[in-house]
Design brief:
Structural class: alpha/beta
Protein name: Acetyltransferase
CATH architecture: 3 Solenoid
Keywords: Membrane, Transmembrane, Transmembrane helix
Number of domains: 1
Helix content: 10-25%
Organism: Ahrensia marina
Number of strands: 20
């Protein structure tokens, strides 16, 4: 049975629990997120989804968080449906992160939505002012292992980011990207829409 089908079966239970969770203080969920590592595979996935639904700015259906995922500034993170975030990923939502539908983010990838303005010669680098810039990840995206996505990156729908690529600020049109910094290597076949 696929995750999507299983989700549809348990959706009424998820909605009921989500309503009850909405009555509880969010700090309770922020503090207990790390404890969800202790729960076995399917139960852990179920609980992490419920916690994400409570903590995130928005959270679609069938969102998978594997073990070891660290998230900060949940309230600035929007998650679409059918999203998979695998082991030991790091999401820092300080500047805002929006992830579309049908997105896979592989192991040990990072999304960091802020950087520092290091242009002032009179300021020690350590004390440079922070700049918050949102990250936007469109629909139908595959991000492979070890990718770093930095503040201001906008990855358009139907794109692949190869392993260990560094995606800096800018717009990345549909395609296959690789390298440091990430550069378009190839166009990607577009899906036919509505039978066209």
């Amino acid at each position: 049975m696929t995750g999507r089908k299983l989700f549809q079966i348990v959706k009424p239970l998820i909605n009921a629990i989500s309503f009850l969770f909405s009555l509880l203080p969010r700090i309770l969920f922020e503090l207990t997120w790390p404890l969800l590592e202790l729960f076995p595979w399917k139960l852990g996935i179920f609980l992490r989804y419920l916690w994400a639904k409570r903590l995130a700015k928005s959270c679609g259906e069938n969102v998978l968080f594997e073990t070891g995922v660290r998230v900060t500034f949940w309230e600035e993170i929007e998650l679409g449906s059918n999203v998979a975030i695998y082991e030991t990923c790091y999401l820092d939502g300080k500047g805002g992160i929006k992830i579309g539908d049908n997105v896979s983010i592989a192991h040990q990838s990072s999304l960091i939505s802020f950087d520092f303005d290091i242009t002032d010669p009179d300021t020690e680098l350590k004390y440079s002012p922070m700049r918050k810039k949102p990250i936007v990840i469109g629909d139908d995206i595959m991000i492979f292992s070890g990718v770093r996505v930095f503040a201001g990156a906008n990855i358009k729908s139907r794109s692949v980011i190869a392993a260990n690529a560094v995606v800096r600020e800018g717009v990345y049109e549909s395609g296959i990207y690789a390298g440091l910094p990430a550069k378009k290597k190839k166009d990607i076949v577009q899906r036919a829409k509505d039978g066209v």
